[in-house]
């Protein structure tokens, strides 16, 4: 049982599907997060989206058996890629392989309750904006660096989603570099995502690593390949962030996702590189996300509560 920053509201199921792992939790009427689960995101080619919905239904059954006194009124489901939240559709995921999949419709049928559906980074960013490190700013990006890279964009205190593709900075080109899953070359996330850092090190040495944090640790002990991979990732991030600053002039960039767990070992050299690329521009504050790895679960719970029946939204039974 985990204390939550959510506060009272409708009991809810929360599902955060990422490119590598998916997380799930049950949130009670007091906002306490119960029974958090983490498991590999199921992959089955063109059937991956079906497998995700099946996993969601299975996890809901597990929560019902483990916590019979907590009856969720709604569920929140977040997925990566290009998302049409209004239509409830996962339009495209390059990393997971679905196209035009009706997630909200299928999850609603599988769970038998209303489902709030959205993009994983956008919803996690909203949680960070409402309840975390981004809450003190009106013009801010919450950037998630994990399997991929994307941002939730807030302008004058409102999230800017556009057609669902706003914030896909991971697919902005930074160099004529590695091929990306989107079909392009030199995309930011092909160079600087946590997955890319680990993949590039393994390709350069023939030595698989557990993740980007291990590459950083090796760089700090003098491994030349690790240092080159890490520094090229920092350079690419700084270049993309400089473009963001020139275009949007944000007060802050809040960094979340798995790579943010490196803390100041990531942020301090990134600040220096970004500062070196700016002239007359506003210097945004670079800070680590406060909610961190739970932001997706909190964001999914907020989406669920938003679609729960009115009586349940007040936390009454």
Automatic annotation (TrEMBL):
Pfam families, per database record: ROK (PF00480)
User: Where do transmembrane segments lie in this chain?
Assistant: none
What family does the entry list? Belongs to the ROK (NagC/XylR) family.
Name the record gives this protein: ROK family transcriptional regulator
Organism this protein belongs to: Microbacterium mangrovi
């Amino acid at each position: 049982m985990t204390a939550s920053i959510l506060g009272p509201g409708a009991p809810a199921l929360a599902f955060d599907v990422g490119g590598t792992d998916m997380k799930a939790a049950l949130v009670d009427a007091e906002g306490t997060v119960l029974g958090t689960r983490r498991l590999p995101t199921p992959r089955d080619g063109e059937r991956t989206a079906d497998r995700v919905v099946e996993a969601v239904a299975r996890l809901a059954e597990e929560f019902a058996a483990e916590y019979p006194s907590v009856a969720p009124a709604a569920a929140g489901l977040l997925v990566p890629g290009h998302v049409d939240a209004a239509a409830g559709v996962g339009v495209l995921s390059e990393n997971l392989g679905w196209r035009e999949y009706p997630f909200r419709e299928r999850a609603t049928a599988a769970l038998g309750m209303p489902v709030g559906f959205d993009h994983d980074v956008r919803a996690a960013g909203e949680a960070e904006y409402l309840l975390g490190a981004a809450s003190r700013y009106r013009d801010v990006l919450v950037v998630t660096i994990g399997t991929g890279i994307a941002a939730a964009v807030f302008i004058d205190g409102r999230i800017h989603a556009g057609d669902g593709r706003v914030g896909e900075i991971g697919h902005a080109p930074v160099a004529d570099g590695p091929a990306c899953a989107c079909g392009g070359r030199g995309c930011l996330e092909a160079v600087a995502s946590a997955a890319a850092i680990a993949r590039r090190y393994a390709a350069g040495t023939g030595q698989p690593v557990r993740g980007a944090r291990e590459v950083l640790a090796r760089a700090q002990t003098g491994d030349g390949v690790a240092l080159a991979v890490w520094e090229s990732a920092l350079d690419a991030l700084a270049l993309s962030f400089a473009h963001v600053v020139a275009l949007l002039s944000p007060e802050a960039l809040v960094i979340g996702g798995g790579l943010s767990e490196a803390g100041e070992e990531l942020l301090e050299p990134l600040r220096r590189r970004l500062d070196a690329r700016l002239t007359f521009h506003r210097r945004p504050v670079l800070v680590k996300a406060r909610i961190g790895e739970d932001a997706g679960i909190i964001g999914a719970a907020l989406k669920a509560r938003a679609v729960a029946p009115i009586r349940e939204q007040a936390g009454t039974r």
